[in-house]
């Protein structure tokens, strides 16, 4: 075992460096000894397989595309830290849900190592770039034209033009595409192989977005577009009024598990009984000729139903002779006083064109096949309906391209026409005030979207969390169907405008609105569902400035390193530990356990031991070796220490001791120094 020196993230990233690394790892024969790519070699490999080659080429190009690719590859400029006060609250300390404050591009980059191929479902509602939604692309990366030219592989003139709109701010199509491209590119890395992504958009950027999604996810992985109707559209005297927006749906790869379903049979409700599915057909009353009591005397009787016990029975309590001559229910029917006294209510067939109606089943069939009868309360009384069992394959249908609301009651799902966008009222009911956030997404709509995935135990990500509608939707959906979905929401701390309602109510930024909404929604859901023991809490993390960052005006292709000598404050210490754990592949919700080494505090996370504090003594080293030898549950496979807090002699002592121990025990253990 030899000590490895390591710098967080790559020191050299360009617009295609990560892509070339993938090619080198999988097709080393396609590169010469100097590292130059040999295109013909790759074509030889492809030609020898069952792949049909096409010379057709079609792509979207814009000013800033090379820069967007570079942004996708560059390491984050920030560190990650946690909100300990919030996370240690009883309702949050064991939560698997996350709300992360920061620029979503930065957060996504931090998440790549830990969350790669772990997210089943991504939903985002990015800026639509309508011209009135406030979108302006700004960039604080202080590249010179020469640096950008070298990193992105473009000429100086193009580099200067790109920097012009990134510094000054722009809402052009090129600016919007430069903004969205790296975020989608990294989002794809987070998706499971059977993962899917949904993107809300309107017609301002739908054409551009569709093409770059085809490029990032692959045209063959487009699952289609869902049309979302909206009733509250503003009128437009010049153009066609917009009554809808779009939901683009893509899968990561071609897999049967990436299909979308809506759990519906046409537009009927689907129920379950002991694992079997059934639908409820029409009320068992007749319509049309022959559907009256004077023509079908044998089909007249009263159904007595007990609302509390749900018991029911058909009773022949009508006068057959009067049935052919009277249309008065009072004359034809007599009440069963005994049943009524015991709490039963009477249900009789409705009239047909002014005449007394009948049931479609005679009384013997009704009483003999009660297991196929369901009685339900309605606004106008009670409905007697018959159920029909169906095969499971007939339940799960493909999602339709028109959005319809899913209404869940117990084990049933109703598919109903739905075209309202009532997210504002929903948010108002949670926060107690209207107009806190403009155009929040409807929770019911988002529950429908999340329910399209044919499983209920997965990680869902929304990196444009906004008011938090999607995060509330996940919690509600879990309550509805007993799911254990986990949410990750990302929201930048964009300042609330000084003339906004949110600002007047004391919210300094949008993140505070998101946080308050999820807290209040969790409290409301717990109150409404006191027996629910699922996860309604969430942990908070945020990006913070890199306290070891270099001036980006001094960046070259080889000096993108992270840390130099410094004395860490307690906050910086915790920030460094959090960032390292995520960088090394641990989820943000993974516990970090403190380890006492004769008074020196180390930290264990997913089999990695972190030594960050200064004053690592020989006694601490001895305690470490003793613990390795005597504690069978303590078996780290990697030891990472902060070089700035370890003088050279102590580094060598640690290296030699662990190397000797690993050789003696014939175990693999890496020792890494980070600066």
Describe this protein's structure.
The protein has 675 residues and is of the alpha/beta class. It is built from 21 helices and 24 strands. A nine-stranded mixed β-sheet has the order 2-19-3-18-17-4-5-7-6, sandwiched between helices. It is elongated. The relative contact order is 0.13. Mean pLDDT is 85; it is low at 264-268, 406-420 and 551-565.
User: How many DSSP H or I helices?
Assistant: 21
How do the strands of the widest beta sheet line up side by side?
Answer: 2-19-3-18-17-4-5-7-6
Indicate the proportion of strand residues.
Answer: 15-25%
Radius of gyration (CA) equals: 32 Å
> Main sheet?
9 strands, mixed
Structural class: alpha/beta
Globally, the shape reads elongated
Tell me the layout of helices and strands.
Elements: E1 4-6, H1 17-26, H2 39-47, H3 65-73, E2 78-82, H4 84-87, E3 98-101, H5 104-115, E4 119-124, H6 145-152, H7 156-168, H8 173-190, E5 191-201, H9 206-217, E6 222-229, E7 244-251, E8 270-273, E9 276-283, E10 302-305, E11 312-315, H10 320-323, H11 329-332, H12 337-341, E12 345-347, H13 363-368, E13 373-378, E14 381-390, E15 404-409, E16 412-417, H14 423-431, H15 443-451, E17 459-462, H16 469-481, E18 486-491, H17 501-504, H18 510-528, E19 539-545, H19 570-583, E20 593-597, E21 600-605, E22 608-611, H20 618-630, E23 638-642, H21 648-665, E24 670-674
Parallel strand pairs: 1-24, 3-18, 3-19, 4-5, 4-17, 17-18, 22-23, 23-24
Antiparallel strand pairs: 2-19, 5-7, 6-7, 8-9, 9-14, 10-11, 10-12, 13-14, 15-16, 20-21, 21-22
């Amino acid at each position: 075992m030899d000590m490895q020196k390591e710098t967080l993230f790559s020191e050299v990233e360009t617009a295609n460096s990560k892509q070339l690394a993938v090619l080198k790892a999988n097709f080393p024969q396609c590169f010469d000894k100097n590292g130059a790519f040999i295109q013909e070699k790759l074509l030889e490999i492809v030609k020898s397989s069952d792949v049909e080659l096409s010379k057709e080429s079609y792509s979207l190009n814009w000013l800033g595309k090379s820069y967007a690719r570079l942004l996708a590859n560059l390491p984050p400029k920030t560190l990650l830290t946690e909100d300990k006060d919030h996370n240690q609250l009883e309702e949050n300390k064991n939560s698997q849900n996350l709300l992360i404050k920061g620029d979503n591009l930065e957060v996504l980059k931090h998440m790549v190592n830990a969350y790669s191929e772990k997210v089943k479902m991504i939903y985002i509602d990015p800026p639509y770039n309508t011209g009135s939604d406030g979108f302006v692309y700004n960039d604080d990366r202080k590249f010179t034209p020469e640096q950008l030219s070298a990193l992105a592989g473009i000429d100086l003139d193009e580099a200067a033009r790109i920097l012009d709109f990134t510094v000054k701010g722009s809402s052009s199509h090129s600016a919007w595409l430069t903004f969205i491209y790296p975020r989608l590119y990294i989002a794809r890395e987070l998706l499971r192989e059977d993962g899917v992504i949904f993107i809300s958009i309107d017609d301002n950027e739908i054409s551009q977005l569709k093409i770059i999604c085809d490029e990032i996810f692959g045209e063959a992985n487009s699952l289609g577009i869902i049309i979302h109707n909206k009733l509250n559209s503003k009128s437009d005297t010049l153009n066609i009024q917009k009554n809808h927006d779009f939901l683009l749906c893509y899968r990561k790869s071609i897999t049967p598990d990436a299909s979308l379903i809506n759990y519906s049979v046409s537009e009927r409700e689907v129920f379950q009984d002991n694992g079997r599915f059934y639908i409820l057909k029409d009320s068992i009353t007749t319509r049309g000729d022959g559907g009256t009591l004077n023509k079908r005397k044998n089909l007249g009787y009263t159904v007595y139903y007990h609302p509390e016990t749900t018991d029911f029975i058909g009773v022949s309590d009508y006068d057959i002779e009067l049935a052919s001559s009277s249309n008065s229910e009072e004359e034809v029917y007599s009440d069963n006083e005994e049943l009524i006294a015991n709490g039963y209510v009477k249900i009789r067939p409705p009239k047909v064109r002014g005449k007394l109606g009948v049931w479609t089943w005679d009384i013997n069939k009704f009483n003999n096949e009660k297991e196929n009868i369901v009685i339900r309360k309605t606004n106008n009384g009670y409905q007697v309906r018959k159920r029909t069992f169906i095969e499971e394959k007939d339940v799960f249908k493909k999602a339709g391209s028109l959005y319809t609301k899913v209404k869940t009651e117990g084990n049933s799902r109703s598919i109903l026409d739905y075209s309202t966008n009532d997210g504002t009222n929903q948010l108002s009911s949670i926060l107690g005030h209207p107009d806190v956030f403009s155009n929040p997404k409807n929770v019911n709509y988002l529950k429908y979207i999340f329910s399209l995935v044919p499983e209920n135990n997965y990680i869902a990500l929304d990196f444009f969390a906004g008011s938090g509608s999607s995060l509330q939707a996940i919690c509600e959906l879990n309550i509805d169907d007993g799911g254990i979905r986990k949410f990750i929401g990302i929201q930048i701390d964009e300042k609330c405008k000084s003339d906004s309602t949110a600002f007047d109510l004391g919210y300094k930024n949008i993140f505070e609105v998101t946080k308050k909404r999820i807290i209040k929604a969790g409290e409301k859901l717990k109150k409404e569902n006191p027996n629910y023991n699922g996860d309604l809490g969430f942990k908070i993390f945020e990006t913070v400035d890199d306290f070891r960052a270099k001036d980006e005006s001094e960046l070259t292709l080889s000096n993108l390193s992270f840390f130099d000598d410094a004395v860490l404050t307690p906050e910086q210490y915790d920030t460094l530990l959090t960032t390292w754990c995520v960088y090394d592949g641990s989820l943000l919700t993974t516990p970090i356990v403190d380890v006492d080494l004769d008074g020196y505090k180390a930290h264990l996370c997913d089999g990695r031991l972190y030594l960050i504090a200064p004053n690592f003594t020989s006694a601490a080293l001895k305690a470490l070796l003793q613990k390795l030898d005597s504690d069978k549950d303590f078996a780290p496979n990697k030891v990472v220490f902060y070089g700035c807090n370890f003088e050279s002699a102590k580094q060598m002592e640690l290296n030699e001791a662990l190397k000797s121990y690993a050789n003696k025990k014939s175990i693999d253990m890496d020792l890494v120094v980070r600066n």
